[in-house]
Amino acid sequence: MDINEILAQVDAEIRDIGTREGLEEFRVKYLGRKGIVAQLTGSIPTLPVEERGRFGQQVNALKNKLSCLIREKEKSLADSGTKAASGEEDLGMPGIAQELGHLHPVTQIITRICDIFMRMGFAVVEGPEIENEYNNFTGLNIPLEHPSRDVFDTFYLKGGEKLLLRSHTSPVQIRVMQKQKPPLAVVVPGRVYRPDAVDASHSFMFHQIEGFLVDKGIRFSDLKGILEAFARAVFGEEIKMRFRPHFFPFTEPSAEVDISCIICKGKGCSVCGRKGWLEILGSGMIHPNVFKHVGIDPEVYTGFAFGMGVERIAMLKYGINDIRLFFENDLRFLKQF
Ligand code: DAH
After folding, report:
1. Residue at 94 is within a domain
2. At what angle do helices 105-119 and 220-235 cross, to 10 degrees?
3. Of the candidates 86, 114, 135, which is a domain's last residue?
4. Which residues' Cβ are closer than 6 Å to ligand 1?
5. Among the atoms of ligand 1, which is closest to the Cα of residue 208?
6. pLDDT in tens, 275-331
7. Residue 189 sits in which domain range?
8. Are residues 144 and 291 both part of a single domain?
9. In angstroms, rounded to a whole number, what is the distance separating the alpha carbons of residues 194 and 5?
10. How many Å apart are CA 218 and CA 280, to the nearest integer?
11. Residue at 96 is within a domain
12. DSSP secondary-structure letter at 218?
């Protein structure tokens, strides 16, 4: 066995090793009790005396080199990870579970409410969040001096065209009625914007659902029936409703709608301010001027409209006391829905 040949061969041999087992085999082959180094050492006494010293040094050098190579290889196998070191992937190892997300509670409520109205024959229509002044105010019979037109109550956009971020979803009434003629039954979910200071019950952006129905012979009692069916579906069969006279420029007569307090069932508590009632939406019979603006004859057609705040409904339904929770993206809150 030529020791120089062995020295040359170990480099190539160890380079091809890719597993711990392979490396162990290599170690046993060379450094094991009956390995090549042991054999070489054992052959020393058979050599002529004058060669023994030099040969012994070469065997030592080989031994040192092998130790070095093995140590280096061990390190590189460890570095390339346990998988590579063991030479096989562990298919039984549990994977990294992908966390499944879900719809935002506001989206869930919107879907739920739209579903309720769709089952009663309403179509769902959306409109743009950037709206013109006509659709947001004028078409809806909101006079020029109305406080909601003030820059403190509406976000106006720069530019000549009098564009704004819609302050309610009612302008979609105008958009739909300009294009389509009755009979119409439509609900409109979407974002609205108002320059309000943010607190537990105000946000500069929130969601509304507008609804309206237009046909021949539509009466206030139809509005009551539809809204009662809606409130029962959302808050439960035992819920009570009341209509309070109110004023909106785009409806006449107008009413605010309350439900019996879902916490105290009408007895009076801190949530309802001891009134026993919670306001949930605004409504009324569509004003003749609105019909005139969109070219529908108010002598032939009548209709009702209503508008509700989605976050408010969600807060009442789930007992949430701060609107900011919907927009802070805190998963500890969102995961509860
Ligand atoms: N647009 C009103 C608001 O943002 C809500 C509303 C009230 C809508 C009465 C209606 C309605 O359609 O009839 O406060």
Report:
1. no
2. 130
3. 86
4. 168, 170, 210, 248, 251, 282-284, 305-307
5. 4
6. 999 999 999 999 999 999 999 999 999 999 999 999 999 999 998 999 999 999 999
7. 105-334
8. yes
9. 87
10. 22
11. no
12. -
